[in-house]
Amino acid sequence: MKNLIPNPYNVFGERRLTYPPAHFEYATIPGIRYNLGEALSKWVEINLKSRYYLGKELVINHNKELQHAMKIGFEDSKEMSYFMLACPHLKYN
C-alpha cells in the first residue's frame, strides 16, 4: 500500500469481486500470458483504491476466431482511465 490509511474494502475482503457487476466500466485485454492475472491484480491492489473485477473470458478476434482474454472492470471510471494509461503490464501485449 502506498499510504497508511486502511482501505475498508481491503479490511473486509470486498475489494476484488468474483462476479462482473453491470454498473462497472470494463476493458478487455486480449492474449493472456502466463501470470498476467496475478500481475494485474497486484498492480491494482497497490495503485488503486476502489472495487474491481478481474476474470477470464472468450472473445472473437479480428480473424473471427475464439481467443482467451482478461476482462477487468472498475467501479470508479477515473480508475479505469488511470489503469489504461499507467499499468506497465499493458504495454507488453
What is the strand and helix layout of this fold?
Layout: H1 8-11, E1 16-17, E2 25-30, H2 36-47, E3 52-60, E4 66-74, H3 77-86
Parallel strand pairs: 1-3
Antiparallel strand pairs: 2-4, 3-4
Could you characterize what this model shows?
Helix content is 28%, strand content 28%. A four-stranded mixed beta sheet has the order 1-3-4-2. The protein has three helices and four strands, in the order αββαββα. It has 93 residues and is of the alpha+beta class.
Task: List the keywords.
four-stranded mixed sheet; globular; 28% helix; single chain; alpha+beta; 93 residues
User: What summary fits the major beta sheet?
Assistant: 4 strands, mixed
Distance between the ends: 26 Å
Structural class given helices, strands, pairing?
Answer: alpha+beta
Name the helix and strand elements from N-terminus to C-terminus, one letter apiece.
HEEHEEH
Oligomer: single chain
For the largest sheet, list the strands in their spatial order.
1-3-4-2
Helix count equals 3
Average pLDDT number: 89
Beta fraction: 25-35%
The count of strands amounts to 4
Backbone shape = globular
Radius of gyration: 14 Å
Helix content: 25-40%
User: Which spans have pLDDT < 50 for at least 5 consecutive residues?
Assistant: none
What's the short story on this structure?
With 93 residues, the protein is α+β, with helices and mostly antiparallel strands.
